[in-house]
Amino acid sequence: MNRIFLTVMLAAAVVPCLPPIAVHAQADAQRNAETLRNAEALRNAEALRNARTLHSKGYTITVPDDWQVIDEEKTIFTLRAPKDDESDTFGENIRVVRHSVGKSYSVAEVLRRQKSDTGRFKLVDEGTVQNARVPMVWMAITPKNPRDASDVLVKIDFITTTKTDIVVLTAMAQPDAWKSYLPRFKKIAESFMPIATGQP
What we know:
The chain is of the alpha+beta class.
């Protein structure tokens, strides 16, 4: 018998098989993960099915009914998601702020400048909001070296521009939750636009 083939056969013969309990546990874990993914997909799909449209300072946005609207003087909108359960200690949120710059910039140019100077933060991900009513890009950053346990949040900036302003929808989420919240954040960001170019 070929020596190499014999060696492979012997090696395969001594590979231990997973005991039945381990196999079942692995299958259960996979089913649970799939169930969680399906539930998350359903929540994201229905994110704006039951929603309300808000108007403030010349802009409009659509948010889920169960999100809290907070009145803050320096923002166009401040929105907070409901907590998932009693153990949830942080409410994911979005703050919309307008920065007057006196000239027009493309969203690509603003994103490029933002990425070139993230300071103590590192870029996690970026992209374009495909279905937005206005040109919009996004970038997610998180601290390179967190200062403490509270300094670990992921910051997602959704950026759009007007003739004289840069408008940023800043979403904040916990590091283990930001990816699951991202589709909901995007749905809300997609609905944002100046009232002048939409329906008041």
